[in-house]
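Quick one:
INPUT:
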């Protein structure tokens, strides 16, 4: 399990994601505290919402898993911004080759949940291999 975020990290999250849809920041903080992948759809939608034109925001709110990213007006530059924010929010790395698979909201959410779970289990394996210590930082 990842260590919970420090107050400094929480403040950084609040600053970095303040322009995302309401609830996104709280979901990121809760994900960092609990590791609950059920929060990923809220985070992904909140970050996408930030980068779509104001006219498309209601579509993001109503989007289903089948909604294409292109129908939301997300171009390649906006997608890169989304990816950078998602990487920061979930503390993972997304390779360029993996981006090509993400065509719909559902693709993004499924990919991120799988990737987050894989990253979390890798962290648990690393902790087990080092006698339970993941980090020298202790937060309360």
């Amino acid at each position: 399990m990842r260590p919970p975020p420090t107050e400094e990290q929480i403040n950084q999250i609040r600053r970095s994601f303040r322009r995302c849809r309401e609830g996104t920041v709280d979901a990121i903080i809760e994900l960092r505290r609990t590791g609950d992948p059920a929060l990923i759809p809220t985070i992904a939608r909140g970050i996408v919402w930030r980068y779509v034109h104001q006219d498309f925001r209601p579509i993001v709110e109503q989007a289903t898993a089948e909604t294409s990213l292109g129908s939301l007006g997300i171009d390649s530059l906006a997608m890169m911004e989304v990816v950078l924010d998602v990487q920061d929010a979930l503390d993972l790395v997304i390779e360029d080759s993996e981006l090509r698979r993400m065509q719909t909201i559902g693709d993004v959410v499924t990919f991120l949940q799988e990737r987050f779970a894989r990253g979390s289990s890798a962290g648990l394996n690393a902790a087990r291999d080092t006698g339970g210590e993941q980090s020298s930082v202790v937060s309360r």
